[in-house]
Amino acid sequence: xxxLREIPAYARLPLPVAAAEGCELILRDGRRVLDLYGxxxxxxxxxxxxxxxxxxxxxxxxxxxxxxALDHAPRAEFLQAFEANLPAGGWQxxxxxxxxxxxxxxxxxxxxxxxxxxxxAFAGAFHGRSAAAAAVTDGKAAAYPQAPLRVIRLPWGESGxxxxxxxxxxxxxxxxxxxxxxxxxxxxxxFLEALRAACDAAGALLLFDEVQTGNGRTGSxxxxxxxxxxxxxxxxxxxxxxxxxxxxxxxxxxxxxRMDPKLLGSTFGGGPLVLAAAAEVARRLSQPGFLGNVxxxxxxxxxxxxxxxxxxxxxxxLLLGLVLEPGLTAAAAQxxxxxxxxxxxxxxxxxxxxxxxxxxxxxQQAQRLAEALEQLEVPA
Length: 380
Prior knowledge:
The protein is α/β, with parallel strands linked by helices.
């Protein structure tokens, strides 16, 4: 055995995975587990998607990687496919490697173009673990001795206080349209609209963190479209490349025109292999029936969650939160569901299970969740 050990950052589940196919994990003994967690919203097209595999193999043989000092065909392919799914208006984007990096770049742009020093963020927020992203994240402890920017922390879902705090010092308001890690907390009616109005009144930029809510997850291409509120910048990552690392910072053209593009840079961001994958994902999202399947699978999961110890259901599309009855924690429910062949996620709310399966989940597969939930018991 090697002496080298990995730093134990993750509490890994006792799941001996040998392979995976579609929406299922295949264990070493041959058992199959329905994956309703989807690798933290990453596996947009499921495991082992044949078309994505062929596209990656062809790109690897043709041009696996090249410096950003050179252009390549997958960049144009990706930009064309991705543009077709964007909210109305003119946009520019920058390619990086993760959601945290995408958020760092968005915050950097906002501070630079507004010449302001503060960013407003929300209680319960998660935006990443790098310096600026961690600063706007509502963590239990400070990630760094000193934050690189001034953060104004706002209560989630409360519109009345916005005019008092979103003022001439605020460069941007950063918000997850649905707070996933906090327990799949959806915005109250009118909340995102109030954010848009407050930013407009103060000359601040509205920044949507769509790292999890983007790429078809809510049943629309973007949560911005789902809720009918368009930000000035938005970020995404996770499922945008179907399992390869990517981060995207998307900026309104009029905002991009005010920035120095030399603010940004990335060694690996925008490489040909990952953009070939992201182009394939973007094309698949726009195919007839794809988002319709997301809606149908969401409805099936919601019906499945109507039984068993589920007190409340939150979310949209295939980003769902199951609020469990008092006495049953999400950690205990997750372990019990695994015994019945279903993998779910937990959240920072100890009573909320998260469902973020591949977007190719078939509605009939939700029956396995229904059967597993019926077996759960609330401790007396």
